[in-house]
């Protein structure tokens, strides 16, 4: 473990497309890499239709059916962190421009043929349109509106002419008229808020680390399924001794998004989110007086991680963390806890190293205190 | 040297010459490809439930006429000059039975919705005397419920578009009735065949007995036994108090000479002779020597039950009548010529002697050839006969009542009396079908549970019900014989599809190509047999003028010596002996040739029974048969050219039958054939070739992919479970209002199909979804077959289902003039509508689309307080009303899906409200693959915690294959599940593994795969395209270190079943809880 710790984490982008990015992440721990993967899949906020008010539905599909399909339509969500508030944090009573986006759909078929009602029929009501929300002006207007980009809240693909998503099919005389309210959320709550369609992740394509075994008929090496990533690594030499201390250090990612966010944003937001989580964790582990001191420093300030952070001072490792993981068995699912390799680079959270280490050494007592913190739960940081 | 060489060469050329239809001698014989196409051709002609429909058609077109013919006269005891005769009967097409309606046309769907009966008028043509003249008229005597898709149904022969206009599903098989709005099926009943001799032994009591249940047209049934008792043989029958020594019985039947008795029974076989001698002596011991003495002997023991008082008849006359009409009633006795009956009894005796001598000569009552299936048509025929007879008796007494009156103002017209006969027939049919009680006192029939409500849980459950056969055996009897799988079931009854538990093996299902015969007139067949050289023993059963066949027919010519001669074979038609032949093989071959040339019905069967030295011809109804390809000279008659024509659509299955390429074989005839399973198995002795081996399975078992790789009980479990799968039910599912309807939101056709699936339309009305499955252990919440589901999949719509529930109420009019009414929502003192009334609209009904919360009222009905007060005479509108609303009781909110307002047949307003709930899978819901592997959901896991492969596919992740990168529900391809591998070793469902592979190959290559029984995509073939991804390395997403497991991540169809919940809470006490603990 110690051997490679000196090397700085690197990212090598192999391919960047409109909706996917393929990169190799090196010199980080397996746990860290997996945390990145998990965060990208589950914790990045986007907007999606959450409430549907059906006015007219004379199609063959029931209301819930259509509502569910509408929820699945990806909406443009870039800069979601700043451009929209969580409804639960908003001061409004029943939706406002700061926390919700209104979309309308009103389609009627007048032809003799079957007509497709698609995501292209969904129109965003521009913020500020009077009569959009039932109770106007009861919320504090924030700066969210100004941070919104061009296609924010608009169904993906509507601008670039890519094929739309089918919502329903109607025949002559059938009419579908409804009002949708899109809100911010994360995929932990519902899969419709996930920006990713698939996150591919691989390491050790030759199975040198022997993390798995393979049943084979005659030739183990020949039958081992090799993917394209195998080209990046050296094949094992014959008779090479098995290094049981070796750790995986290179990870091959391919992040594909559904269009609501660009792949770059997904990766960057993912890292930022991870940082926030860890900051919160460390915060939670502080003893009470220290916590009071820290509350003044807003952990969100390091929200936007830039590429520099990657190459940042990897340094120190965290001697205190290693044993801690073993002790805190109950942490299993919350992998970030062990992502120690580059904690050093994480801005304001870094002082935690010393303090955190000590409290861990102390065992369960200190940590139980941290767990109960409502602050952490509110941030969606749960197991 | 050169010359012989050249000769050699010529010889070779000759051999190689394409000299016969372009085919040379050395060419490999082309195999008939795609001969399975005969199967869809067969189903096109016959349909999936052809047995029900054919049987009903036979009833309404032929049998009903025979019944009326047999009961065609009504006379009067009062006026001897009066008579009424039925000359014809016809069943019309279903119509609306309402006076006021202008459009009389009715569709089955309207009947379902309006709770009315889909029935057609029965019209009879009558001739009767009116005064001095004879009048002919047509009268409607009642209404007969019509089987859907039968020849009288409006749906028959309609195109898909026409069916759609009638709101009917083209894939619906029909074969059931709609009675008072419910769909009722008359299950196929299995019985021992009638009019055949069955020999059995009771090893405990040491009894050998031959029995024969006689059943003639007219429904008279009686069972006659010839049995041993203390080494002697007796004839036993219900109408005689004690057992009659067989010699006496034969004497009474006109065979007086002991020598002849001996010849007819024992023949020349020494062993039989000695065994029979004691029985022969008995007659002499009892002092019975002549026919008269024998009749006296029997007559004094006959049970006399006559209602009509008259002069007491001598004993011998009673005996004569009993012997002629009750004992072995099916053997005809013309002009007191008992010869054929005597021979029949003698044959029974001989069979007993044979069984006494050789234990192997007994019959097997479980043998399918000894069984007959009773269908809707037969049961309805019996019911009709009973009702018709009662109708006539009622009519007669009504006529008598009028005629009794001395003076009349107008001339008596029986037509008017008929008009006032009420709806005895109509109500009789409706009652019997809706209750399932067939209690026909007249025919000593008392059966309950004949009909069942057609199960509409899924398309397959409805179909499975139509092919079900129930046995008459008591379910409680713990006998293994009738429950065991019989080798003779091959090809006709499904070996897998039977329930578990008490009805195991007693309830069976038909195989895919099974056909059940209807009655075919036997007289022309008998005549034909004589033409082919059968020598007659009796003319009893023939109405043909004697001179036509006289040369062969001197009865007395044939006696024991001839009948049991070494080379003689007895020819039986439907169990009755008609004659002898010395060349059975030739006779049978010629007979078959005529049948293949369609000189008689294709369902007539003929076979040789070498043990009994008999040729049996059968033309009775209820035999189970199936089509096979005829093989002659080692070549199947069906060739690729024929199949090409079939593909083009220029020929139908009937053409194959007519040209003698394919023929029906019943179970008995199968014994006389040598059927090759595959074309390559044909040897010179082969007579037939199977159309397709997978047809030996039924419709439900046919849905299992690779069933031939599974342990057999798994297939049986699957047959029970496949019916519970949620999916699409019918094309008209959204226009139906069923009591309870479960629909899947996104049903998918299976990745791994079978031919059966395509044939029955399961790919168009699927149940279940294809899931990406990882076979691995995960989290410990998957023990005991529990499954792990991906939360994201559920979010995307996997396993989402809709539950539609019907709620009905009648807005009644009461006999005292008062009536129910609907009221709008009441206002409270503040002028506000109470919460529970918030969805009620002006008309007193909930609005369509509204959400119904528990406790909400959706029909605000009010009833008069004095509805039962029959003395009330006041203003109906002014009576006080009380609230009798319909309240929503389910604990989970729903939506109003539909509201229907209509009238029933008796003019009551009918309101049906359909309430819909949408459910997503949750912990404890049951899921199943298609291999009898069910499990409940044990844990729902977030997508990021699910295992995943190097491409990011996790059971539940989106698939790369689907190019559109949206989360739209259509793309929710990677739905999913984790299944515990411990489910495999003990279950041995290898078929499931192969399905996983085939499914994955299909997904990766973008094809559907086939898993047809005894065929389907081969593992070698299917796994090839999988290539490197034959196995996937899965990482476990939720642990800090990623474990890697090299596992199958495959696609498999997962069918979700019931997610029922208990409707109401509360603890249930078990006996264990009540006992004091130690």
TrEMBL record, chain A:
Residues 311-332, 354-365 have a biased composition (Gly residues). It is found in: Nucleus. GO terms for molecular function: DNA binding; DNA-directed RNA polymerase activity; protein dimerization activity. Residues 20-284 form the DNA-directed RNA polymerase RpoA/D/Rpb3-type domain. InterPro entries: DNA-dir_RNA_pol_30-40kDasu_CS, DNA-dir_RNA_pol_insert, DNA-dir_RNA_pol_RpoA/D/Rpb3, RBP11-like, RNAP_Rpo3/Rpb3/RPAC1, RNApol_insert_sf, Rpo3/RPB3_RNA_Pol_subunit. One of its GO terms (cellular component) is RNA polymerase II, core complex. Keywords: DNA-directed RNA polymerase, Nucleus, Transcription. Residues 144-158 have a biased composition (Basic and acidic residues). Residues 374-383 have a biased composition (Polar residues). It comes from the Eukaryota. One of its GO terms (biological process) is transcription by RNA polymerase II. Residues 123-158, 220-241, 293-383 are annotated as: Disordered. Its main location: nucleus. It holds the Pfam family RNA_pol_L. HAMAP family: RNApol_arch_Rpo3 (MF_00320). Belongs to the archaeal Rpo3/eukaryotic RPB3 RNA polymerase subunit family. This is DNA-directed RNA polymerase II subunit RPB3. It comes from Sphagnurus paluster.
Automatic annotation (TrEMBL), chain B:
It comes from the Eukaryota. GO terms for cellular component: DNA-directed RNA polymerase complex. Residues 194-374, 453-516, 571-632, 653-685 form the RNA polymerase Rpb2 domain. GO terms for biological process: DNA-templated transcription. Residues 47-411 form the RNA polymerase beta subunit protrusion domain. PROSITE patterns: RNA_POL_BETA. Pfam families: RNA_pol_Rpb2_1 (PF04563), RNA_pol_Rpb2_2 (PF04561), RNA_pol_Rpb2_3 (PF04565), RNA_pol_Rpb2_4 (PF04566), RNA_pol_Rpb2_5 (PF04567), RNA_pol_Rpb2_6 (PF00562). It is an enzyme of class 2 (transferase). The keyword Disulfide bond does not apply. It catalyses: RNA(n) + a ribonucleoside 5'-triphosphate = RNA(n+1) + diphosphate. Its EC number is 2.7.7.6. GO terms for molecular function: DNA binding; DNA-directed RNA polymerase activity; ribonucleoside binding; zinc ion binding. InterPro entries: DNA-dir_RNA_pol_su2, DNA-dir_RNAP_su2_dom, DNA-dir_RNAP_su2_hyb_sf, RNA_pol_bsu_CS, RNA_pol_bsu_protrusion, RNA_pol_Rpb2_2, RNA_pol_Rpb2_2_sf, RNA_pol_Rpb2_3. Keywords: DNA-directed RNA polymerase, Metal-binding, Nucleotidyltransferase, Transcription, Transferase, Zinc, Zinc-finger. Residues 700-955, 976-1018 form the DNA-directed RNA polymerase subunit 2 hybrid-binding domain. Belongs to the RNA polymerase beta chain family. DNA-dependent RNA polymerase catalyzes the transcription of DNA into RNA using the four ribonucleoside triphosphates as substrates. This is DNA-directed RNA polymerase subunit beta. It comes from Sphagnurus paluster.
